[in-house]
């Protein structure tokens, strides 16, 4: 099962406000890119040697924030009521 | 703004236990929950122990959305082709007050928060606490967006990914070594199929844990719990190991689902949800300061999780810490003193009870459980020995002792074996 199919099963109320941003200056030149392996929803993707991020499928686990060695991830929770909304949990 | 005596951040087991304890003693409590409803942001494997829930809500299983009680525990070693299980079933766990239960958070937490509301607590959902309200380094309430909510004391029950204690300087950043990442799929199957496939009668349920190839030998394991008409199937792995070996839990759970043993359990099932969460696993090593002026930290936010290798338990400790925090606030309010000296009572209570006693007893377990031999060499060795014992290849049979000696070769030295046994004796 691909991640897109899995995330499509989940209920999200996606906020227009982005809750995670990458500081590109810090992010560029990172060879390790642990964010790619930390994120269980594959929100981080490597495109032509730099990491791009989309917040829509974020499960709000916080792994990327702890994994980033460059302190390049500005992480806050989505506004109340937005984001992942588990039906089972 | 109306002033509350206490504000609780997070309506999970810790926050609800704290709020309920306070409300019953006449404390005016406001709970903030960032999910649309309590449980909307929460996930766990699914198995939890009942005694503290029973203490707060006697006979809770009669009305709470419990999927099944657990009277059977299975621990299995896995290689890509084999599984070798220890299967424990007991009549002792099959009658009230039971021992463990399987639940789904979105349903269970919602019920729990409802009970707390009935006790007179205001549970405000879909509101994210952004910051603490500080005055001369004393916590005086919380900020939600631009609005300020004053209170005498704030109980932090934000869960594993807790940011308020970090902002308040009660802890440093956690490291990937301190965390395990759990991912789970809820897989729907007809109730009858589940009961037949797992040999369950009525409300009986089974909790299965797996060690070995399901994590590709990385520290962690797989789990499978039977709900009423679905299965909770997942993988838990230390975050640092994932990063170091460039492995994704996403790929591990797919591999797990395709293991010959697991594949049969979930056959014809339909995945209905995919979830992920962090688990703080370094115990006392990572525990933040548990209190500050006007503030208490509980549950996963305080890293109160016990892992012994055979069990990984958080909810029970979360509830115990919530109750202790609640009792501490009740006492502090009587004296009108929310200073660190008064709130020290919270830590004293946890030390008297099982929470900090257990974390102390098993303080060396987190490091012991990082030993990759537990997840690689031992499962492989055990499965290979079992295969050789049962295999008939038409050749003369070696003695069992020789099979065992052969199983060790190339995987483990006798020194490894003795040293691991010695460390296990000390740590777990």
What can you tell me about this protein's structure?
The complex is a heterodimer of chains A (89) and B (428). Chain A is α+β, with helices and mostly antiparallel strands and 89 residues long. Helices cover 22% and strands 20% of the residues of chain A. Chain A has a single domain (3-84), classed as Alpha-Beta Plaits. Chain A has 4 helices and 6 strands. In chain A, the strands form 3 sheets. In chain A, strands 1-6 form a two-stranded antiparallel ribbon. A two-stranded antiparallel sheet of chain A has the order 2-5. Chain A is globular. The two termini of chain A are 19 Å apart. By secondary structure, chain B is α+β, with helices and mostly antiparallel strands. Chain B folds into 3 domains: 4-65 and 104-174 and 285-352, FAD/NAD(P)-binding domain (3-Layer(bba) Sandwich), CATH 3.50.50.60; 177-280, 2-Layer Sandwich (D-Amino Acid Oxidase, Chain A, domain 2); 368-427. Chain B has helices spanning 13-24, 51-56, 105-118, 164-167, 191-197, 239-245, 249-257, 260-265, 315-335, 340-352, 354-361, 365-368, 377-390, 400-408, 414-427, and strands at residues 4-9, 29-32, 47-49, 66-78, 83-89, 100-103, 122-124, 131-135, 138-144, 147-156, 179-188, 204-212, 220-226, 230-238, 270-280, 291-292, 295-297, 306-307, 312-313. In chain B, strands 3, 4, 5, 6, 11, 12, 13, 14 and 15 form a 9-stranded mixed β-sheet that branches. In chain B, strands 1, 2, 7, 8, 9, 10, 16 and 17 form an 8-stranded mixed β-sheet that branches. In chain B, strands 18-19 form a two-stranded antiparallel ribbon. In chain B, strand 9 and strand 10 form a beta hairpin. The longest helix of chain B is centred in the last third of the chain and has 21 residues, at 315-335. The termini of chain B are far apart. The chains are: A alpha+beta (89), B alpha+beta (428). The interface between A and B is large, with 36 and 52 residues.
